[in-house]
């Protein structure tokens, strides 16, 4: 099946710094990618839809200036958490629909962000 | 609004016992329903989709539109089934998934 990678897998940063998380589709192209956030022992919550060649679509309540999304190519989307604060600490997961009629979504392994 | 409800946070069963993970949804149209599984230290992966009506690893799930349910079942649980299970729906193709809160299945030897 198709593979989605994320980098880094884990990051610890100081409050006020910015952190960039990469999501790559390794063996297929993805014009759309999705970014989710998962708090401990809670479900995945959709943050935004990343669109190659156009602006991302953010879910209600998600600050677009804080969570910058750039879909740089057909295989890469980045999420930058700007001026991170401890409440931004979470597990961030990206996914991409594969090609073919079913469009199965393939998930990255996730990135654990800890803001001190 | 789209919503997926998994009423049980944790389900513990003995090896060989039947398993049923409940999932109910609310959606105004005809969504696609899925079950995803996340084993310890692994990424989320697709287990079942209602369109296929298939059995994977002994698991089945039937979409009941009248009850708006998509319960996951397995007649005989195995220890390797211990994992986090998420029910999810989407509108179509390239739209994002809406997840339930998940149920942790623990199969006891």
Quick recap of the structure?
The complex is a heterodimer of chains A (116) and B (109). Chain A has no helices and 11 strands.
What can you see in these coordinates?
The complex is a heterodimer of chains A (116) and B (109). Chain A is mostly beta strands. Chain A contains no helices and 11 strands. In chain A, strands 2, 4, 5, 6, 9, 10 and 11 form a 7-stranded mixed sheet that branches. A 4-stranded antiparallel sheet of chain A has the order 1-3-8-7, with no helix packed on it. In chain A, strand 9 (90-97) and strand 10 (105-107) form a beta hairpin. The mean pLDDT of chain A is 92. In chain B, the strands form 3 sheets. In chain B, strands 2, 5, 6, 9, 10 and 11 form a 6-stranded mixed sheet that branches. In chain B, strands 3-8-7 form a 3-stranded antiparallel sheet, with no helix packed on it. A two-stranded antiparallel ribbon of chain B has the order 1-4. Chain B has 109 residues and is an all-beta fold. Helix content of chain B is 0%, strand content 43%. The chains are: A mainly beta (116), B mainly beta (109). Chains A and B meet through strand 5 and strand 9 of A and strand 6 and strand 10 of B.
Low-confidence spans of chain A: none
What is the 3D shape of chain A? globular
DSSP helical segment count of chain A = 0
**Protein chains sharing the most extensive interface:** A-B, 20 and 18 residues
Distance between the termini of chain A: 37 Å
Largest sheet descriptor of chain B: 6 strands, mixed
What is the chains' assembly state?
heterodimer
Q: Tell me about the largest β-sheet of chain A.
A: 7 strands, mixed
Number of strands of chain B: 11
Order of secondary-structure elements of chain A: EEEEEEEEEEE
Class based on secondary structure composition and strand pairing of chain A: mainly beta
């Amino acid at each position: 099946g198709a593979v989605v990678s994320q980098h880094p897998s884990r990051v610890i940063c100081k409050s006020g710094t910015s952190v960039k998380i990469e999501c790559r589709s390794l063996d297929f192209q993805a014009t759309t990618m999705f970014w989710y956030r998962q708090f401990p022992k809670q479900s995945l919550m959709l943050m935004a839809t990343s669109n190659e060649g156009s602006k991302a679509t953010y879910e209600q309540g998600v600050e677009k200036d804080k969570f910058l999304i750039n879909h740089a190519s057909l295989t890469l989307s980045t999420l930058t958490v700007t001026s991170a604060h401890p409440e931004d600490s979470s597990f961030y997961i990206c996914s991409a629909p594969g090609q073919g009629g079913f469009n199965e979504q393939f998930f990255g392994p996730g990135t654990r962000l800890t803001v001190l | 609004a789209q919503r997926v409800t998994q009423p049980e946070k944790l389900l513990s069963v003995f090896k060989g016992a039947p398993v049923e993970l409940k999932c109910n949804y609310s959606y105004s149209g005809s969504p696609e329903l899925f079950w995803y599984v996340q084993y310890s230290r692994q990424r989320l992966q697709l287990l079942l989709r209602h369109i296929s009506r298939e059995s994977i690893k002994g698991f089945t799930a039937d979409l009941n539109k009248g009850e708006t349910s998509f319960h996951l079942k397995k007649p005989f649980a195995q220890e390797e089934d211990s994992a986090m299970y998420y029910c999810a729906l989407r509108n179509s193709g390239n739209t994002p998934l809406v997840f339930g809160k998940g149920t942790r299945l623990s199969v006891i030897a």
